[in-house]
Design goal:
This protein is of the alpha+beta class. It has helices spanning about 25-35, 40-55, 60, 70-75, 80-95, 175-185, 190-195, and strands at about 5, 100-105, 115-125, 130-135, 165, 170. This is Transglutaminase family protein.
Length: about 200
């Protein structure tokens, strides 16, 4: 799938915002720790991906009711849904000058019910000239997302028969409809009721 930038300025994908707060000391410290031993941008990006995927549990999998949305907050609480984890990975990538944005899928339950927008990350390694999507959601039985820039290894492949969609746009900041749901939820069950069904 051909990914397109929401903002034409690549600098937007390195910028700080209220969610992707990669100048926060906690993000800076985590990025510095991950960079030790990562001698290329690729090695760092993979280390950051695996860190977010494997050490920050998805709150649905762990049963954690807390809602997080800022990268620094996710790192402190060590919990978040896909959107929070994607924001965190984008922040860790930007902290090391790797352009990163947010992209999305519309997914549904196994029977096609309960559609919901799922958050991913797109990154653009220096010199690559192209965006690649990765999914730091977190693996579990039946989900095996991997860091791969050539062939996508996302948590889920969209199913046309259930009107699932891969959105091709790479956003520099979380869309307001996503941020509104994250910021306004008192707990994860309320968040689940308010997440958008589509972008």
């Amino acid at each position: 799938m051909e990914l397109t930038q929401h903002s034409p300025d690549i600098g937007a994908y390195l910028a700080v915002d209220e969610a992707i707060d990669h100048e926060h000391p906690r993000v800076v410290e985590t990025a510095a720790h991950l960079a030790r031993g990562a001698d290329t941008a690729y090695a760092y990006a993979r280390a950051a991906f695996e860190f977010v995927r494997d050490t920050i549990p998805h709150s649905v999998d762990s049963g954690d009711p807390r809602v997080t949305w800022r990268a620094s907050e996710v790192l402190a609480a060590r919990t978040g849904i896909c959107h929070a984890k994607s924001i965190t990975l984008a922040a860790l990538l930007r902290a090391r000058s790797i352009p990163a944005g947010l992209c999305y899928q519309r997914l549904a339950a196994d029977d096609g019910a309960n559609p919901m927008v799922h958050g991913l990350v797109a990154l653009r390694l220096p010199g690559s000239g192209r965006w690649a999507r990765v999914d730091p959601r977190g693996n579990k039985p039946g989900v095996d997302a991997r860091f791969s820039l050539e062939e996508e290894r996302l948590a889920w492949v969209t199913r046309e028969e259930f009107n699932e969609v891969d959105y091709p746009v790479v956003y520099a900041a979380p869309p307001e409809v996503i941020l509104h749901a994250l910021r306004g939820a008192r707990d994860r069950s309320e968040l689940w009721r308010n997440l958008p069904e589509h972008l």
